[in-house]
Specification:
115 residues, six-stranded antiparallel beta sheet, mainly beta, four-stranded antiparallel beta sheet, globular, homodimer
Chain lengths: 115, 115
């Protein structure tokens, strides 16, 4: 039985993720276990005023799922405020970034798909 | 900007999902929008005493993410109690099912990956 938990286990600190601001906490929920074209499922915590920098997906698409908190997402040239339950798709060839604009942690799931 | 919300929008009622018990509420969060080998991202609510019946994934793998509530998952011949934050992988060729064993709704994300 392959089971993991988003909230338990080892978190890794990442500084300036994709040239973003500050230090994030990051956990690989599923990656090596996956056999399909789903590359990974990651859980990332963005403390207040931190961000994932704007970056391009050349050969994959990626989904952000907002589990808690709120933020400002950028996809290509569009900015949008995102809140709990929002799901943002970044298609192949598109660029995205995310910033925590709130006083509480911003928690997200990140899922990447290959072609 | 391709954005959706897990909790808002149209839910569909499904009765006896994969020969399971009772009526579930189901929402397609992302499906047609996806271009990679991620087939879909669905949000499913299992009211108390309902279930997704035991079924096999012949050509895909599928991930359940428990957002709220608790349940009993079966993968092949193994049963396990799952709670908020648990992530359960069902590999290609494996079978799984899920039952709500609690008095509150069980909310899950379902992601399928192709090969």
């Amino acid at each position: 039985l392959i089971i993991s938990n988003i909230y338990h286990g080892n978190f890794i600190n990442i500084t300036n993720c994709h040239d973003g601001i500050g230090q994030l906490q990051f956990k690989i929920v599923l990656e090596e276990e996956l056999q399909s074209k789903i590359s990974f499922l990651h859980f990332t915590i963005l403390p207040p005023e931190t961000s994932i920098g704007f970056h391009k997906h050349e050969d994959s698409e990626e989904i952000y799922i907002i589990l808690k908190g709120s933020g400002e997402v950028i996809v290509n040239d569009e900015k949008h405020i995102v809140v709990q339950g929002d799901v943002i798709l970044n298609r192949k060839g598109s660029s995205h970034g995310l910033k925590n604009i709130n006083r509480e942690n911003l928690e997200i799931l990140v899922i990447e798909g290959k072609f």
